[in-house]
Design a protein that fits this description.
The chain is α+β, with helices and mostly antiparallel strands. The chain is about 40% helix and about 20% strand. The radius of gyration is 18 Å and the shape is elongated.
Length: about 150
């Protein structure tokens, strides 16, 4: 069960959150791609968490790139990303206790870097800071006029 906003669960302490996200993302990459990226680092703010991974390509993918098959490596990465998406989002939601409304993924095949950016529901910040009584579920908010 995913903790609700503000609920204490098995989340890391605030200073440990980036390390927890990095471990989570690297473990998921290892399970789905057969190898762990050699380096990773995450950065957290109130609005998002970004995980930067280095050396993510397998030896086979590197060989395909040398042979000029970058498009096939890119297409395969997109398929794997689709398979990992739900697990990545659920894991970050569990670690942070926040609702992820978007996951933006980018892969740079040369030098083999990947970027996983988790964007949080901004309305939760208004709730946590006392500006809203209760966060309105996505899609149910009334448009506000100026």
């Amino acid at each position: 069960m995913i903790p609700s906003v503000g609920e204490i669960g098995d989340r890391p302490q605030r200073g440990d959150l980036p390390a927890g996200v990095t471990k989570l993302v690297m473990d998921i990459y290892a399970r789905h791609l057969g190898r762990r990226p050699t380096d990773g680092r995450s950065y957290a703010s109130d609005e998002l968490v970004m995980c930067v991974l280095r050396d993510t390509l397998s030896p086979a993918e590197k060989s395909q790139l040398v042979e000029g098959h970058a498009s096939s490596v890119h297409e395969a990465r997109l398929r794997v990303q689709g398979a990992m998406r739900e697990e990545l989002v659920a894991g970050v939601e569990r670690l942070t206790g926040r609702k992820v409304v978007d996951l933006i993924t980018a892969h740079d095949l040369d030098p083999g870097s990947a970027f996983e950016t988790f964007v949080f529901d901004a309305r939760e910040l208004f709730f946590l800071n006392g500006f809203l009584e209760d966060p309105v579920p996505l899609g149910e908010a009334e448009p506000q006029s100026a």
